[in-house]
Amino acid sequence: MLRISKGSTSSIRLLSQSTRSSFQNKRSILSKYEKKPELDLSPNKLASESHIPFVKQNLYKKEPRQPQAKAPFLSEQEDNYTGISGWREKLGQFVVSTFGIDMDKSRSGPVAGGKYFGECKKQALFYPDEPLSDSARFYYETLKLPQSFSQQVQIMILHYWILSVRMRALPYKYGKEYQQKLVDRIFSDMELRMSTELKIKSGRTIENYMKDYHTQLLGCVLSYDEGLMTDDITLASALWRNVFNGNENVDLRHVEALLMYVRSQLYVLNKMTDRAFGFGYFSFVPADQIVKLISKEEEEMIKEATKKEFAGMTLPSQQSVLSMDE
Predict the structure, then answer these.
(1) Beta strands in 215-304 (DSSP E)
(2) Pairing mode, if any, of strands 4-6 and 289-291?
(3) Residue limits of the Ubiquinol-cytochrome c chaperone domain (predicted)?
(4) Are 231 and 259 in contact (CB under 8 A)?
(5) Residue 311 resides in a domain
(6) Fewer Cβ close by (within 10 Å): the C or N end of the chain?
(7) Phi and psi (nearest 5°) for 289?
(8) Which band of pLDDT confidence, cut at 50, 70 and 90, is reported for residue 137?
(9) Do 322 and 104 touch, CB atoms closer than 8 A?
(10) Is residue 89 part of a domain?
(11) Whole-angstrom Cα distance, residue 96 to residue 39?
(12) Is 208 within a domain?
């Protein structure tokens, strides 16, 4: 593990096909984060230190629709995909071995469409009669973003993009599968939540929302990619336009804190091997924690520990061609 210390629609086509920049050599893309000056502040602490008066942004002609119910967080199948036992497990292992199933491709469903989807969704999730999670408090209380479904979507898109950067560094045929499973699951979940939680009865209205969110996602991916491959000013500008809704009265310390949060996630992802990431070992670092830079020696120790762990995974369903060195 990296050293982390506690501080105060239907089917959507693969998005990265329209932004075919080469992310496969991830170290050249993310090398700018290798020597960032280390701050002894978490993103949450950095944002909280600002004392600039808050000016509420008027985004809506009327108050946004709030959830009236609660849809399942994950499907029953994805919650329990690791819980198969007995003869079913033996049969499954036999099928995988006999037919030579590509497990890295098959694994993209439960990992990207299950584990990583859950990571994206829970960050800004809220319900009116429930206390906010720690991650949701960072967005709605610390950064003072409005509590709405559309705001949740923007934050979920940001986390999708962060993961997609790492997915595009996987071998292409696997990276596109992981991206597709994740984005399909995000949009199918949004469609479900609009009907069950927001109680939108019109299928046409939901379809129009889905098209609008898809357009937003495409624009966000392009603007965040530009920021990734240029400089922090460009990336901060993209965060301001999308997550902060282009608020002219935004506290720039809040934008800086979110930029630091994004940098931290990219740094951690850059230190993970393809194998560890492909098996779903990544979780977003909470905003109240500090990511410490690690040395080359520590990085090699992490890789050796990962190799030792995977050496004990000998079942056919645990087979993988993903690298344990990069």
Answers:
(1) 289-291
(2) antiparallel
(3) 142-284
(4) no
(5) yes
(6) N
(7) -120, 155
(8) very high
(9) yes
(10) no
(11) 48
(12) yes
